Amino acid sequence: MAGEASAEAARKSSQEAQEAQETAQVQRTADREPEFPVLGDDKAAAFFDLDNTVMQGAALFHFGRGLYKRKFFETRDLARFAWQQAWFRLAGVEDPEHMQEARDSALSIVKGHRVAELETIGEEIYDEYMADRIWPGTRALAQAHLDAGQKVWLVTAAPVEIAQVIARRLGLTGALGTVAESVGGVYTGKLVGEPLHGPAKAEAVRALASAEGLDLSRCAAYSDSHNDIPMLSLVGHPYAINPDAKLRKHAREKDWRLRDYRTGRKAAKVGIPAAAGVGAVAGGTAAAIALSRRRR
């Protein structure tokens, strides 16, 4: 027992020492870094992942809770949503199997409903379940880009309609998200292309940057997940926000900036852009559809 207590004390002391070093690094970095974001740089923009970066938990699961309240599906389906959300919050990472199951469930639930109906409900669900789950620290980072005169986009695997509601309510420029197929304004229960996830996000950001005339080396991207390393590697100013273990390790190796708002700890390092080579993957269709929808 005494040995275990001693080991735990040593582990805690080591962790506190590491956090103190990171805090000191924050101050040293702040002293020598040029001001960022750069005021008036219209060739720069910021791209934010949504789940666990801007908002605690997953938007799709919160949306599911709201649909259950409105009797879109039964109690057994809610139990599955609740389990997936609990796992996501405890693990702090995206499990592909869970996320795929959640997407399939959501598509089957909205099949046959009108797009306009879900957009209206999305506004209500934001107020009920999402508004108080926005990370203040990440919100402040987004606002800093807006105050500098730059555009700020959400880039997420969540349905584009939900993402657009959240972006609008936060005062952001817009959102790229997964596109559900609709015919005559009614959901078919299928996707257009693939979910906007992992490398597909990088393809969407690249397409949007080209359409907007942006210089990606002057842009910033923010995410919590190692799945978004391709998107983070695409820009000149990558940030790891509330990072999972793999992203934290990668960010430290690349000397990227880090922020962790889950426990109040904040660690920051000078960002050095990694190689921007990203493999082509399915997802370009979703990006193109989202871009065309934005322009209309």
UniProtKB/TrEMBL annotation:
Residues 1-35 are annotated as: Disordered. Belongs to the HAD-like hydrolase superfamily. SerB family. It comes from the Bacteria. The lineage of its organism: Bacteria, Bacillati, Actinomycetota, Actinomycetes, Kitasatosporales. It comes from Streptomyces collinus (strain DSM 40733 / Tue 365). Pfam families: HAD. The chain crosses the membrane at residues 270-291. This is HAD-superfamily hydrolase. Keywords: Hydrolase, Magnesium, Membrane, Metal-binding, Transmembrane, Transmembrane helix. GO terms for molecular function: hydrolase activity; metal ion binding. PANTHER family: PHOSPHOSERINE PHOSPHATASE (PTHR43344), PHOSPHOSERINE PHOSPHATASE SERB1 (PTHR43344:SF15). Residues 15-28 have a biased composition (Low complexity).
